[in-house]
Specification:
Blueprint (H helix, E strand, L loop, with lengths): L4 H16 L3 E2 L4 H9 L3 H4 L5 E3 L4 H11 L7 E4 L16 E4 L6 E3 L5 E5 L4 H9 L3 E2 L10 H6 L7 H4 L6 E7 L5 E5 L4 H7 L8 E8 L1 E2 L3 E8 L4 H12 L8 E10 L4 E10 L10 H4 L4 E4 L2 E3 L1 H5 L9 E10 L2 H18 L8 E9 L1 H4 L1 H4 L14 E10 L5 H21 L24 H14 L4 H5 L9
Parallel strand pairs: 2-4, 3-4
Antiparallel strand pairs: 1-2, 5-6, 6-10, 7-11, 8-9, 8-10, 12-14, 12-15, 12-16, 13-14, 13-18, 17-19, 18-19
Helix pairs in contact: 1-4, 9-12, 12-15
The structure holds flavin-adenine dinucleotide (FAD).
Length: about 475
């Protein structure tokens, strides 16, 4: 009988258990189940690896990679905080999942200018530590999200208009390469890898530590603001005026979300409006705040760890992300709402009740994209030459796996029709944000020819046998 992949995986997991002891866990053990429970989406939690490794040092990660790399019968996955929704992004059915949450320490250097963060930390770990020191870093707006996935995919933070993408602020990556070597990538050591990792996701190795540039930060002003769906046209106008302002206010951050509940067929509007300085009712939000009625308003003074520590989903649900980038236009946003509404009403009878949909619009002004080139370059291909933009995140949540196909199909229809509308208006942009991308999208290809060439060269140089292309099937691949 031929030696099967399953035999290889069992053998490799056995070797890993000999080398790393209780850091390797097997199905039904408490540690194994704790990792499985930590995935944000049900699709990820349903995948069952042969074993899970929870390393607590970079050396443990190196031992793990050295043991399994090059053995194609033993695929593996790299998990940060497990918030990428698509099945297989950070987990694997039969194979080894490396759960990085055992490396979650946060420290700062002597002058507090650099925070060194274990790759498995959540943003809450980081903000709780830094808030007390009067400094911050550009990271996630939801505390439970992982430093690893968010930063390697770009990373939109409340501070984006002051600091650029989260990845622009990584001064050094400590990374385990396919060879098992633990190396640094920064402006002077391996600068090609440093740049590749800023948007290149899990294609080059397993990052074990992020050294992040800090900046002074006191309190902020922000919270949630809900408005009636009947105000959508006024809301889109106010949003577009903020997103396309000739001088974008660098302290302003805004996410405008329209949510649809399939059970009651109702749309609602809410904003996450934040000013990263302790200024109440800053003029940048005047037009938005003047729209009545306000159905909820929690805007007020806060700090980063409190603001980001919003409640998660009540239970693990199936989840879907899909994204696109457009030029700024209130007319286009209204058109996207109309397209979504028509599509959702027409398929409603096929989707079980209790499916929730969200359209989240986020400004991507040149005030954000200008920082990439100023901070050593990233891989994302976003430049001020593109002008001000808007990123759309379409999301869906549902309980029953029987609806997986129809929800995916519906999301695709909405996004294809929205793309056509944007194209007709000359507002469709190429950029597909990796951290919001659906599994059928190709975010890395959207970075453009030059960045893709650089990413491929770095992958060939640092992983010549293609371990992170083939043996780590999850996530979005550079495809050397
Ligand atoms: C509730 C919620 C809020 C969000 N808020 C924001 C936000 O404010 N801003 C924003 O930009 N995005 C946001 N996102 C999107 C988020 O950036 C992505 O989901 C991201 O992938 C999450 O990172 P993670 O480490 O939690 O995920 P994981 O699913 O663990 O990892 C995602 C990908 O990164 C890879 N990866 C993770 N760690 C490493 C590592 N150490 N080395 C190599 N590869 C690694 C994984 O293999 C996987 O392919 C949010 C998502 C959710 C669900």
């Amino acid at each position: 009988m031929p030696f099967s992949s399953t035999d290889t995986q069992i053998t490799k997991c056995g070797h890993l258990a000999q080398l790393l002891g209780p850091k390797v866990s097997f199905p039904n053990s408490t540690t194994y189940l704790a990792t499985e429970k930590a995935y944000w989406s049900l699709q990820e939690a349903e995948l069952l690896p042969t074993c899970i490794v929870v390393p607590s040092t970079a050396e443990d990660v190196s031992t793990t990679v050295s043991t399994i790399a090059g053995n194609e019968g033993c695929p593996f996955a790299i998990k940060g905080a497990g918030h990428a929704p698509q099945a297989g992004a950070a987990n694997i059915e039969s194979g080894v999942t490396i759960d990085m949450t055992g490396l979650a320490s946060v420290t700062v250097n002597g002058d507090k200018s650099v925070a060194s963060v274990g790759a498995g930390a959540s943003w809450l770990d980081v903000y709780l530590y830094l808030d007390d020191l009067g400094v911050a870093v550009a990271g996630g707006r939801n505390a439970a999200v992982g430093v690893g996935g968010l930063t390697l995919g770009g990373g939109i933070s409340y501070f984006a208009p002051r600091q650029g993408w989260a990845c622009d602020n990584v001064v050094n990556f400590e990374i385990v390469l396919a060879s098992g070597a633990i190396v640094n990538a920064n402006a002077t050591a391996r600068p090609d890898l440093w740049r590749a990792l800023k948007g290149g996701s899990n294609n080059f190795g397993i990052v074990t530590r992020f050294d992040l540039q800090t900046f002074s930060q006191g309190g902020l002003w922000g919270g949630a603001l809900a408005q009636s769906i009947n105000s959508s046209d006024e809301v889109f106008k106010a949003f577009a005026n903020i997103a396309s302002a000739p001088q974008y206010d660098p302290y302003a951050s805004l996410v405008t979300s329209l949510s649809f509940n399939s059970t009651n067929q109702q749309w609602s509007i809410s904003h996450l409006a934040t000013y990263t300085k302790p200024v109440a009712d800053p003029p940048v939000f005047n037009e938005l705040l003047a729209i009545e009625p306000q159905l909820q308003n929690t805007l007020g003074f806060t700090n980063l760890s409190t603001l980001t520590n919003e409640p998660g989903l009540p239970t693990q649900l199936n989840a879907l992300f899909y994204t696109a980038t457009y030029g700024v236009s209130a007319t286009l946003l209204a058109k996207i709402l109309e397209i979504s509404n028509e599509t959702l009403y027409s398929i409603n009878s096929q989707v079980p009740s209790g499916t929730f949909w969200g359209l989240a619009f986020e400004p991507l002004p040149t005030q954000v994209t200008k920082y990439g080139p100023l901070k050593g370059g990233n891989s994302l291909g976003t430049t001020p030459a593109d002008g001000n933009g808007v990123i759309l995140l379409l999301s869906a949540f549902w309980a029953s796996p029987s609806a997986n196909d129809i929800v995916q199909q519906t999301a695709r229809t909405i996004m294809q029709n929205a793309a056509e509308a944007a194209q007709e208006m000359g507002l469709l942009r190429e950029f597909v944000y990796l951290n919001y991308a659906n599994q059928v999208q190709e975010p890395i290809a959207s970075y453009g020819r030059e960045d893709v060439a650089r990413l491929r060269a770095a992958a060939r140089r640092y992983d010549p046998s293609g371990v992170f292309q083939r043996q780590v099937p999850g996530g979005f691949k550079v495809l050397v």
